[in-house]
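Memo to structure team: turn this sequence into structure tokens by end of day. - J.P.
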Amino acid sequence: MCAMYLRRLSSRIAFFGVIRFSWKDYDEKKGGIGVPIVNVGFQVIPKTKEGNSYELVDKAIEVVSKSGVKYEVDPMETVMEGEYDKLMEIVKEAQEAVIAAGAQETMTFIKVHYRPEGVTIDEKVAKYR
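Reply from structure team:
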């Protein structure tokens, strides 16, 4: 259904000259039109004089949870799967949520696994589940 809709939409858009789209550019693993799926692992370390830093980290994880992207929380970081720009925006929002919750500053460590044809969390860890 979605693929059929995209084909119809793409032909109409191409007709009006808004964008150039080729159906060969569409790839589910790449998140749609030529955009590869990446993995971003990040760790937000809040600095606070008072309070529990775990509660502040929970605010960052809450942002990820509400974002709708696929993610996994591990003891040392949160790993997300999706389009690069969207994931980096989520990291930024997570930092802002930690500051809003009372941290004076944060240190954020980010790891990105990028492959032009896309990469998923499942392909890396499915055999261990």
